[in-house]
Amino acid sequence: MKNIYDVLIGPLLTEKGTLMKERENKVLFKVANVANKIEIKKAVEEIFKVKVDNVSTMNYQGKKKRMGKHAGKRSDWKKAIVTLKKGEKLDFIEGV
Question: What would the pLDDT profile of 6-18 be if each residue is shown by its tens digit?
């Protein structure tokens, strides 16, 4: 990918993600399906000005859904778990 802002779609704010952030200094992101670990690391470091230690990614298949006789499928998506280096901090909702 050419633009770092196309790599990160947004943060994943879940209970499990909040616990991982507090205990293990890991942050969850929803990322582009074609993004690799190197691009994700560069994007997080440049956008949030933090040092990244490790990146793990997982691909999720979209669920099949029905509405009456019409069948459809949700989009496939990718999740990244970004481990920050010791002493680094990243807070999305610090102003709230």
Answer: 999 999 999 999 9
